[in-house]
Design goal:
The complex is a heterodimer of chains A (325) and B (342).
Chain A: E1 2-5, H1 6-20, E2 24-28, H2 44-48, E3 53-55, H3 60-72, E4 76-80, H4 91-99, H5 101-104, E5 114-118, H6 134-138, E6 144-146, H7 151-163, E7 168-172, E8 180-183, E9 197-200, E10 205-209, H8 212-225, E11 231-235, E12 238-240, H9 244-254, E13 257-260, H10 269-281, E14 290-292, H11 303-309, H12 313-324
Parallel strand pairs in A: 2-3, 2-4, 4-5, 5-7, 6-7, 10-11, 10-13, 13-14
Antiparallel strand pairs in A: 1-8, 6-12, 9-11
Helix pairs in contact in A: 1-7, 3-4, 8-12, 9-10
Chain B: E1 11-12, H1 25-50, H2 65-72, E2 80-83, H3 88-93, H4 98-105, E3 129-132, H5 139-153, E4 159-164, H6 171-182, E5 187-193, E6 196-197, E7 200-201, H7 202-205, E8 222-226, H8 230-245, E9 251-256, H9 274-284, H10 286-296, H11 302-325
Parallel strand pairs in B: 1-8, 2-3, 2-4, 4-5, 5-9, 8-9
Antiparallel strand pairs in B: 6-7
Helix pairs in contact in B: 1-2, 1-10, 1-11, 2-8, 4-11, 5-6
Classes of the chains: A alpha/beta (325), B alpha/beta (342).
Bound molecules: thiamine diphosphate (TPP) and magnesium ion.
């Protein structure tokens, strides 16, 4: 094991895959000379040169489309969005061109591309820069969607995403970039897309979550443990495909479920999990499924309102208390 | 550059052009005070950011003061203005209360957006200013939409639509150009060319460097203007406004300017040299330029200018004081303003 920040783990994943596959390249705004707006691509220009680490103009629809075309032609682009908020400029290309082509062509043309970048709220960057897109992309057949929490998963999942023959939406988190975790010290460290991880076993309530909210859920579990509530935390890691087996196995044990996400709850990931569990494990539930999500408002700038709008460890703990009472 | 054919419609006015003779003392004094106000306001915002009183992204306008100041003076009530996230100066130019602007930066209850928008999202419809938008390039069609509304109402008003050199590459900018030209909308597209989009210089992002030519494919006349010279800006703007009011369709102005500070507060600005920045500051500073004119014409001396500076500082300090002491928004505000009341 080596200790790496999420930022370093992502960089290493890209560098390793670029070393082993000449068709892999990185493209996006400020990825080369600036070393990435959040320094995720630090050192890549130096190692791989301007042919493979490419600064683009601010033209998301255009370069996403160019990436998708290049992927159809057999290359394996990693397209960085400075943040996923700006991928909305390109979402037509992602959904209509990347996600659907394999199907529309009867399997003749596939699109091996990774779209990656920070997703969700950062710190006080307000409504247009703070949105979680997990549910948006999870909606679309033809896409895979992953959202790691730890550096080990960030690295293993990114490598899996780059090797995947399909378009993968890779949702990072700006606040997590600087956090350190133990990472297996091996170029073979791959985390298969589609498998969740029970990061804390427990017997009283299942909490499903992903990305930065895993940390908040773990914090909540600590507080709850002191009150005699033993929470099981599932880091989904992969949003599409969703590892429903792991979730259901857990619910069969705990008989209670809370879903946690930073994004809006309406038609969100929690709504999807709640429906799935209701369909497949209804008889195991001792209580209604609770959804914890961001407040149903555009994210405000003011510090106090922002804190109120985003799920905190305390919000999650409160939901568990309510459910386990 | 290479291969670009210039049509007669696109003109480049050289540096210092437009700074013609008969400018009144009053006009110069007004420009001096207004530009100084923007600069001191932004300096204060930068300080307060450093003190942790302002959070998130904060993009300062320092260096570009002549653009918004000169343009605003060509406008009349009922004209509208829209821009991106670098918008504090546009707010002040549109007549917003500096206290309310600063309180928005600190995210307090009496901020212009009640603390909900922050640095990038401010509006003063009263002053004809409609934001304050965070998605690069998105304001271009919005501004064209204001032009559309004017044309629809046949009201003679113009829409000033600002965006950056980086934003000029976004596809929707070209879509807006085409429709604005097709429908002869009264829109002045203003590219604030400060030479950089974050760390990317225009030379690294743009196939044809002359952004004033960007409208030619759509028949939109373009002009390159010395954006460090408020009089040149005003002259070009007045001409553009007159064309729009005369129903001649959209106009494109490329304002050659420069931002002295980093892109936002977190930018170490390693993509350019200190010398490059200090050269512009020394040789082309828009405020110094007006100051020199005032002194040369005998309208002002060190003492009188110091008085102006003092008054401006007092106003900025008052705004800062207010913004620090104003209370945070009430928690209930989290759920207000999501929908307009019917
Ligand atoms: C669609 C979109 N892509 C990327 C960004 C991130 N971003 C914010 S400002 C900026 C640079 C814009 O430069 P320019 O248009 O020249 O304006 P300036 O900042 O120089 O005023 C970038 C890339 C964004 N806000 N929106
Ligand atoms: Mg710029």
């Amino acid at each position: 094991m080596v200790e790496l920040t999420v930022r370093e783990a992502l960089r290493d994943a890209m560098a390793e895959e670029m070393r082993s596959d000449a068709d892999v390249f990185l493209m996006g705004e400020e990825v080369a000379e600036y070393q990435g707006a959040y320094k995720v691509s630090q050192g890549l220009l130096e190692e791989f040169g301007a042919r493979r680490v490419i600064d683009t103009p601010i033209t998301e629809a255009g370069f996403a489309g160019i990436g998708i075309g290049a992927a159809m032609a057999g290359l394996k682009p990693i397209v960085e969005f400075m943040t996923f908020n700006f991928a909305m400029q390109a979402i037509d290309q992602i959904v209509n061109s990347a996600a659907k082509t394999n199907y529309m062509s009867g399997g003749l043309v596939n699109v091996p591309i990774v779209f990656r970048g920070p997703n969700g709220a950062a710190s006080r960057v307000a409504a247009q820069h703070s949105q979680c897109y997990a549910a948006w992309y999870a909606h679309v057949p033809g896409l895979k969607v992953v959202a790691p929490f730890s550096a080990a998963d960030a690295k293993g999942l990114l490598k899996a995403a780059i090797r995947d023959p399909n378009p993968v939406i890779f949702l990072e988190n700006e606040i997590l970039y600087g956090q350190s975790f133990d990472v297996p010290d091996s170029a073979d460290h791959i985390v298969p897309i589609g498998s969740a991880n029970v990061v804390r076993p427990g017997s009283d309530v299942t909490i499903t979550t992903f990305s930065i909210m895993v940390g908040k859920a773990l914090e909540a579990a600590e507080a709850l443990a002191g009150e005699g509530i033993d929470a099981e935390i599932i880091d989904l890691r992969s949003i599409r495909p969703l590892d429903t087996e792991t979730i259901i196995t857990s619910v069969e044990k705990t008989n209670r479920l809370i879903t946690v996400e930073e994004g809006w709850p309406t038609a969100g990931i929690g709504a999807e999990i709640s429906a799935t569990v209701t369909e497949r494990a209804f008889d195991f539930l001792d209580a209604p499924v609770l959804r914890v999500g961001g407040s149903d408002v555009p994210l405000p700038y003011a510090a106090n309102l922002e804190t109120l709008a985003l799920p905190q460890a305390e919000t999650i703990a409160d939901a568990a208390r309510k459910l386990c009472r | 550059m290479a291969g670009a054919k210039k049509k007669s419609k696109t003109t480049k006015s050289g540096v210092k052009q437009g700074g013609k003779a008969a400018v009144s003392r009053e006009t110069l004094e007004t420009y001096y005070r207004e530009m100084l106000m923007i600069r001191r306001f932004e300096e204060k915002a930068g300080q307060m950011y450093g003190m942790g009183l302002i959070g998130g992204f904060c993009h300062l306008y320092i260096g570009q003061e002549a653009v918004v100041t000169g343009l605003q003076h060509a406008l009349e009530p009922g004209d509208s203005v829209i821009t991106g996230y670098r918008c504090h100066a546009h707010m002040l130019a549109a007549g917003a209360d500096p206290r309310a602007v600063m309180a928005e930066l600190t995210g307090r209850a009496d901020g212009v957006s009640k603390g909900k928008g922050g640095s990038m999202h401010m509006f003063t419809p009263e002053g004809g200013f409609y934001g304050g938008h965070g998605i690069v390039g998105a304001q271009a069609p919005l501004g064209a939409g204001f032009g559309f509304a004017n044309k629809y109402r046949a009201n003679d008003r113009v829409s000033v639509t600002y965006f950056g050199d980086g934003a000029a590459n976004q596809g929707q900018v070209f879509e807006a150009f085409n429709m604005a030209a097709l429908w002869k909308l009264p829109v002045i597209f203003v590219i604030e060319n400060n030479h950089y989009a974050m760390g990317t210089s225009v030379t690294r992002s743009t196939a044809i460097q002359e952004l004033c030519q960007r409208g030619e494919a759509f028949g939109i006349p373009g002009q390159q203007v010395d954006g460090m010279d408020v009089l040149a800006v005003q002259a070009a703007s007045e001409k553009a406004v007159a064309q729009c009011r005369a129903d001649e369709g959209p106009v494109l102005l490329e304002m050659m300017t420069y931002r002295y500070r980093g892109h936002s507060m977190s930018d170490p600005a390693k993509y350019r040299t200190r010398e490059e920045v200090s050269k512009v500051r020394q040789e082309r500073d828009p405020i110094e330029h007006v100051r020199d004119m005032l002194v040369a014409a005998g309208h002002a001396d060190d003492d009188s200018l110091r008085e102006v500076d003092k008054a401006v500082k007092a106003e900025v300090n008052d705004a800062a004081e207010f913004a620090q002491n104003n209370q945070a928004p009430d928690a209930a505000e989290l759920f207000t303003d999501i929908m307009a009341e019917a």
